[in-house]
Amino acid sequence: MDEFTLNLKRQIIARMNLQGVKPEDIVDDAPLFGDGLGLDSIDALEIIVLLQQEYGIKIASAEEGKTVLKSVKTIADFIKQKQA
Amino acid sequence: MTKSGLSITGYCEISNGCLLLNGKKVISSEVKTLEETLSTIVSSLNVVHPRFGKMDRLAQLGYTCVEVLLQGNENIRQYKPEEVCLMMSNSSSSLDTDFRYNSTLEGIPSPALFVYTLPNVVLAEICIKNKFKGENLFFISDTYDTNFMFNQINTLFESGRAKACISGWVEVFENSYRGVVFLVENKTAQNSINFSIDNISAIFNK
Q: Would you list the domain boundaries of chain A?
């Protein structure tokens, strides 16, 4: 796991108060919502806030949000793309 | 004052670093803060829940009180979800979380904090966990209004809307906290006591 993804997972864990979850427990391309990490719609909003606060990135639309918030990998790719 | 048939079949208190179940001290923590007291209780009694970390302090206290109260109580599952009611109160409403949320307004407000800026969300967390679908009410008053709550609970039973009711006091504000919950049922059980104003008062004054 690269340092960028590791840091992102740590931020998600801290922001979501995922007690007992370690970065290595989150599979990069596993779904974050539903059967995956079990996050809900409020958590989705928290991740959007996280992206704004930590990376200065806004998600433009609900459709983009659905694509970006699929997994840690899609979020990381989105951040890297915006920062490029 | 008593009404026939109704009993308090269990009660639980979390305050000042201690957990008391049916009047007996189960856990006494050296550290008295709410966070560390709840951490000790949930790990010792294995009542942790995936959502626990996401809850605000008020919901964590109410949730833990009820989990301890119902732990090992299979009888509660004999009721239909619609027959189990909740009726709680406190004096500070959700002010503890309101202040925390207010402090986030200067930046980007936290959605996860915002959803807890109502005191009755503690009832929702308890209902979601236990799949209760009965009437639930949260009142704000200076102290647990024993006479009022006693009459309200009796009305729930008399109207046929409740077969069981969890009532109590769940209060959190800054460093102060106290959770007292009790289960009222239309039956007697081992160690149950009559549902009466005197006995409710006794539970709060133990």
A: 3-83
User: How many structural domains are present in chain B?
Assistant: 1
Q: With CA atoms as reference, report the closest residue to B97 among B196, B175, B172.
A: B172
CA distance B165 to B160: 12
ipTM of the shown complex? 0.72
DSSP B24: E
Structural domain boundaries enclosing B173: 2-204
* Nearest-angstrom CA–CA distance, B17 and B60: 15
Query: Looking at the partner chain, which of B48, B54, B107 has a beta carbon nearest the beta carbon of A17?
Result: B54
Q: Closest by alpha carbon to B180, among B51, B3, B22, B4?
A: B22
Hey, which CATH number is domain A3-83, 3.90.550.10, 3.30.200.20, 1.10.1200.10, 3.40.50.300?
1.10.1200.10
Q: What are the CA-CA distances from residue B176 to residues A68, B32, B61, B139 (Å)?
A: 42, 10, 12, 19
Q: For B86-111, how does the pLDDT look when each residue is reduced to its tens digit (9 = 90+)?
A: 999 999 999 999 999 999 898 888 89
Distance from CA of B31 to the nearest CA of A (A): 21
**How far, in whole angstroms, is CA B115 from its chain's centroid?**
19
Q: Do A46 and B110 touch (CB under 8 A)?
A: yes
Q: pLDDT tens across B114-136, in order?
A: 999 999 999 999 999 999 999 99
The verdict on a CB contact (< 8 Å) between B53 and A18 is yes
Amino acid sitting at position A64: E
Model's pTM, two decimal places? Answer: 0.89
Looking at residue B54, which CATH number applies to its domain?
A: 3.40.47.10
